[in-house]
């Protein structure tokens, strides 16, 4: 009886004071201010997609994942505990990777009860499908609280000492409103932005599946990170400070949203954490006209402006810019395109890198992957003009490699019903190799 009475007082306290402090803006969906900064085309695309955010009840859920150690200490104090309980929470969530408050066995039962009565949960979602490719790449479908599915990919690199690098390729949105013509995610439509903890949990899911620490994170899964910048920055902070992944090991890839590269750069300057992002720009064309035929949002952010913003980003951050170029046979892979791309990059010194991505075929697309010879020709034309270039090795071809493909197989409609939810992942492991 005593505990129940104390809990109810604390509950009132939490709802009136602490939650407002603890739930940071970065852990919400796209803010009105961010939305105003979108280009007209992107804003129109976002506005045409519904529903865009979690329901009020879901977005008010109190999620521990994503909170920093000081925030967890404050929460413990607000809940009538000693501050060190917050440190214990931090350890349980980020080091022990415990998924349920019920399983916080190091904490007194009374504290666990208080947390649960106040509506706090860890915020880890179940893995809906696991598909393993012959090369060891594993693609996960994670089922979010509102039954939406997102893709996350774990890409291991092994040498004779074993697993030396594990990259998590994370999603930043459920779907994507930008509809690039070669991308399965774009074709699948857009549902909503991810919250920061929904990005962080993807990395923890990869660690769980591989039983190994993630060394690198790339925002190259579903969605356009710059359309969900606050949550992406919130996730970045947590991945760096709490999950302890080096800032230089985190890459944000964007197809381009006006004003956002500048924001990334200034965020670094304003922040005591000195965020350092690798800015990876998905270019896909050597001139504006061609780019508009491949990337619909290109109309609102001309190539010249992108190149200028990337240059400014480099000047402000000293971070090398990486340009992604998806090679589509007969469309953007001719010698003249390589020559034009090299011209676009002249005067950049060695402060950039071009990464060629041979197109991964997707359902319902007429695009073709170029031949190996075609890819090599394109790369050598660039190299001959002193462009630093690499060719991305296709990983996980048999695991529905192109981003968004696996999710599209399972989620033709935006929501799954309970009866469509699969058995637990242990019994569900689908190995494609
Ligand atoms: C899925 S996007 C997500 C990040 C961001 N929206 C962007 O476009 O950079 C990550 C990368 O995957 C590439 N991509 C998407 N679909 C592809 C496909 N079918 N084949 C090859 N690359 C693809 C994009 O060009 C982009 O460089
Ligand atoms: S390539 Fe990137 S921006 Fe384009 S539709 Fe796919 S996820 Fe969106």
TrEMBL record:
Protein name, as recorded: Radical SAM core domain-containing protein
CDD domains in UniProt: Radical_SAM
Chief site of localization: cytoplasm
Species per Swiss-Prot/TrEMBL record: Linum tenue
Matches recorded under InterPro entries: Aldolase_TIM, Methyltransferase_A, RlmN_N, RNA_MTrfase_RlmN, rRNA_lsu_MTrfase_RlmN/Cfr, rSAM, rSAM_sf
One Pfam family matching this protein: Radical_SAM
HAMAP family the UniProt entry points to: RNA_methyltr_RlmN (MF_01849)
Location in or out of the cell: Cytoplasm
GO CC terms, sorted: cytoplasm
This protein's record includes keyword Protein transport: no
UniProt cofactor(s): [4Fe-4S] cluster
GO biological process: rRNA base methylation; tRNA methylation
Keyword annotations from UniProtKB, A to Z: 4Fe-4S, Cytoplasm, Iron, Iron-sulfur, Metal-binding, Methyltransferase, rRNA processing, S-adenosyl-L-methionine, Transferase, tRNA processing
GO molecular function terms noted in the UniProt entry: 4 iron, 4 sulfur cluster binding; metal ion binding; RNA methyltransferase activity
């Amino acid at each position: 009886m005593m505990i129940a009475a104390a809990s109810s007082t604390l509950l009132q306290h939490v709802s009136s004071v602490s939650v407002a402090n603890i739930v940071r803006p970065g852990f919400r969906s796209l803010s009105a201010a961010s939305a105003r900064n979108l280009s007209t085309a992107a804003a129109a695309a976002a506005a045409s997609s519904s529903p865009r955010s979690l329901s009020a009840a879901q977005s008010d859920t109190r999620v521990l994942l994503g909170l920093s150690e000081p925030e967890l200490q404050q929460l413990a104090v607000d809940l009538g505990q000693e501050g060190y309980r917050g440190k214990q929470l931090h350890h349980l969530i980020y080091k022990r990777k415990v998924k349920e408050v019920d399983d916080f066995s190091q904490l007194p039962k009374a504290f666990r009860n208080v947390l649960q009565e106040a509506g706090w949960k860890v915020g880890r979602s179940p893995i809906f499908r696991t598909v393993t490719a012959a090369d060891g790449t594993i693609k996960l479908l994670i089922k979010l609280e509102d039954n939406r599915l997102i893709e996350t990919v774990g890409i291991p690199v092994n040498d004779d000492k074993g697993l030396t690098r594990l990259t998590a390729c994370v999603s930043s949105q459920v779907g994507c409103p930008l509809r690039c013509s070669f991308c399965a995610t774009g074709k699948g439509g857009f549902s909503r932005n991810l919250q920061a903890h929904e990005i962080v949990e993807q990395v923890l899911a990869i660690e769980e599946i591989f039983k190994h620490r993630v060394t690198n994170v790339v925002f190259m899964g579903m969605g356009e990170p710059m359309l969900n910048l606050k949550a992406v920055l919130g996730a970045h902070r947590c991945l760096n400070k709490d999950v302890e992944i080096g800032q230089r090991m985190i890459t944000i890839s964007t197809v381009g949203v006006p004003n956002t590269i500048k924001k990334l750069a200034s965020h670094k300057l304003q922040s005591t954490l000195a965020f350092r992002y690798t800015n990876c720009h998905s270019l896909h064309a050597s001139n504006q006209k061609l780019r508009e035929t491949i990337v619909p949002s290109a109309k609102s952010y001309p190539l010249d402006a992108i190149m200028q913003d990337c240059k400014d980003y480099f000047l402000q951050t000293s971070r090398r810019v990486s340009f992604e170029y998806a090679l589509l046979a007969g469309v953007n892979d001719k010698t003249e395109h390589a020559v034009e791309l090299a011209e676009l990059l002249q005067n950049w010194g060695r402060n950039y890198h071009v990464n060629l991505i041979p197109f991964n075929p997707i359902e319902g697309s007429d695009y073709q992957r170029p031949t190996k010879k075609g890819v090599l020709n394109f790369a050598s034309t660039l190299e001959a003009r002193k462009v630093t270039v690499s060719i991305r090795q296709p990983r996980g071809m048999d695991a529905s490699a192109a981003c968004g493909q696996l999710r599209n197989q399972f989620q033709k409609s935006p929501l799954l019903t309970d009866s469509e939810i699969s058995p637990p992942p242990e019994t569900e492991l689908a190995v494609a190799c």
